[in-house]
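Fill-in record for LacI family transcriptional regulator.
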Amino acid sequence: MTQKAITIKDLAEKLNISVSTVSRALKDNPEISQQTREVVQKLAKELGYKPNPIAVALKTRKSNTIGVVVPQIVSTFFSTVVKKIEEVADSYGYNVLVSSSNESFEKEKKNIDIFLANRCDGIILSLAKSTTSFEHIQNIINTGVPLVLFDRTTKELNVSKVVADDADAAYRVVMHLIHGGARKIAILTGAEHLSIGKNRLKGYKKAMTDSGLEIYPDLIVRCDDFSVPAAKEAVLKLLDSEHVPDAIFGINDDMAIGALEAVKEKGLRIPEDVAIFGFSNSKRSRYMTPSVSTINQFPEKVGEKAAELLFEQILDPRHARIREEVINCELIVRESSDRSYLEK
């Protein structure tokens, strides 16, 4: 049988003093004598008294808790962002509740509702791929709860955001592939409404145009999701099509790995026949054969900046302002796209 939680009222009855005296003694209020404070705190410790966080939140209007919603908790990028958010939150004396939408719009809404019901003092969010309407997020804003979006964001909401310089990073990826001799470069992307897809496609198109290369519509491939199987299936079809690519840029590492598996299955050489580049610097990308070239988005910086933007709003709401922080990216060239030795 579960033991009933000890309350302030229980402590007061055992010591034959008022509830208010116990409450103030537990807070080490100097208005209460040192002896009484010590007696109350000693009994509270012996009986295992713990403050009710919901009751405290109702009284103080602060829960000292923030909520974080990510599309995938197993992702190296998102898990690293969350770890950094937790470090920053801890330095402010805050706890972090983390949930995953699993790329589901309905799950994302449910997670947000739970955080609001638990009176989280702020929310940090990266959108699920299936999120196309934003009433549930506007509801956070309407209730006055501080909010920061990161990585997967939308221009439809006037909130603080932390994003990678996706367009510039994609531009540099495609220019790297072109300098390696690629001329027919495919891009594996996702749904049109997602900011990361839009921005990385924008960088791809600019690099192709600046280099005077033709952009074939059938080399812009939209996959059902960002997974290895979806990308592999798409690339197998692409390699049997009219315009066979000599390089493939996946807008995340899983898509690049799916491309790698498809190219190997077709008996083509990487990078000699088809060069491949990913995005996000996942652990998996390092250990593939060949290792997958990718983009380092500096998730530690993303997490730190997202948390700092949120705590600006929580701790100083009158002076906090809405702004977008852009984190510069770094190219990591590995075996899957390194054609430098072919030039020797």
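KEY FINDING: Residues 253 and 284 are 8 Å apart (CA to CA).
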